[in-house]
Automatic annotation (TrEMBL):
<dbReference type="InterPro" id="IPR001509">
    <property type="entry name" value="Epimerase_deHydtase"/>
</dbReference>
<protein>
    <submittedName>
        <fullName>dTDP-glucose 4,6-dehydratase</fullName>
        <ecNumber>4.2.1.46</ecNumber>
    </submittedName>
</protein>
<dbReference type="GO" id="GO:0008460">
    <property type="term" value="F:dTDP-glucose 4,6-dehydratase activity"/>
</dbReference>
<keyword id="KW-0456">Lyase</keyword>
<dbReference type="InterPro" id="IPR050177">
    <property type="entry name" value="Lipid_A_modif_metabolic_enz"/>
</dbReference>
<feature type="domain" description="NAD-dependent epimerase/dehydratase">
    <location>
        <begin position="5"/>
        <end position="223"/>
    </location>
</feature>
<dbReference type="Pfam" id="PF01370">
    <property type="entry name" value="Epimerase"/>
</dbReference>
<dbReference type="InterPro" id="IPR036291">
    <property type="entry name" value="NAD(P)-bd_dom_sf"/>
</dbReference>
Length: 289
């Protein structure tokens, strides 16, 4: 029986992981609330924004899955300390806990934003002055993870535009849905807008569980198979909702390519299975997870 410790388990990817994980596993989740999800999952009440005691964590854990990120990621500098506490300091504490307790696998949820809108090797962007505070906290955590690779297998997964049911409206695709439903204009660079390769949350969760099986440390981009423009995504949402989106075009602004190269993901974790048109239809019509 495997023993898991999971942060961010009630978030978008975490909910699917709890749904997909082997029912015979022993699962502990960190949550600021003490509410039990079900009888098979043990909740440890810890708020990662505050100082917390690692002695509250269980021993003999096989895998740590660190998905949590600050809900205030857009609120720099007002919430800078809370953002850093959740995104970076908690990563350090969990890594040190894992080292002391001989954890075999540590999965860290990073972000495609570490690339800062360019396709570069990670080493070339560590000190990019244009990087957001949120992205900087993710880079810091990636560096911390690198230093602990001698003690455990660490899989750093850089997620690109994950979407799914009941997603927070601060996220891109959920925000597009909100704007279209409320007739709020969507700003488009150039003719079609930015390029993205979104991935459905269930596919993202499957990638996490596949990464756990790797017997060495890896850094892997996790995104969808299809490269889509912002306008295509919005048009598809509007088509399903039967609402015509409102656009404001800036033809003079170059649309950025914000896609991630997922060739490594396909090779060692497998292809995402849910096409965008199916995933977004499920979110809008049927989804309730």
């Amino acid at each position: 029986m495997k023993r898991y410790l999971i942060t961010g388990a009630t978030g978008l990817i975490g909910r699917y992981i709890l749904k997909l994980i082997n029912i015979d596993s022993e699962i502990y989740i960190l949550n600021r609330n003490s509410n039990e999800i079900n009888q098979n999952i043990k909740t440890i009440q810890i708020d990662l924004e505050k100082d917390w005691d690692e002695n509250l964590l269980p021993k003999n854990i096989d895998t740590v899955i660190h998905l949590a990120q600050s809900e205030h990621y857009r609120d720099f500098p007002d919430y800078s300390e809370k953002i850093f506490s959740v995104n970076t300091f908690s990563t350090l504490k969990l890594l040190e806990y894992s080292r002391r307790n001989n954890v075999k696998n540590f999965i860290y949820a990073s972000s495609g934003s570490v690339y800062n809108n360019v396709k570069s090797e990670l080493e070339s962007i560590y000190f990019n002055k244009e990087m957001s505070f949120y992205s900087a906290t993710k880079i810091c955590s990636e560096i911390l993870c690198e230093n602990y690779e001698k003690y455990m297998n660490i899989k750093t997964l850089r997620f690109f535009y994950v979407y799914g049911c009941n997603q927070k409206e601060s996220m891109l695709i959920a925000r597009l849905i909100y704007n279209i439903k409320n007739s709020i204009p969507i700003f488009i660079s150039g003719d079609e807008g930015i390029l993205i390769n979104p991935i459905y949350a269930e596919d993202a969760a499957k990638a996490v569980l596949c990464a756990e099986l790797l017997n060495k440390s890896e850094k892997i981009n996790v995104g969808g198979m299809e490269i889509l423009s912002l306008k295509y995504v919005a048009d598809k949402i509007g088509e399903i909702l039967n609402i015509k989106p409102k656009y404001v075009f800036n033809k003079d602004l170059l649309a950025e390519n914000l896609t991630g190269d997922i060739s490594k993901m396909i090779k060692i974790l497998g292809e995402p299975q849910i096409p965008f048109n199916d995933g977004i239809r499920y979110v809008l019509k049927d989804g309730n997870l």
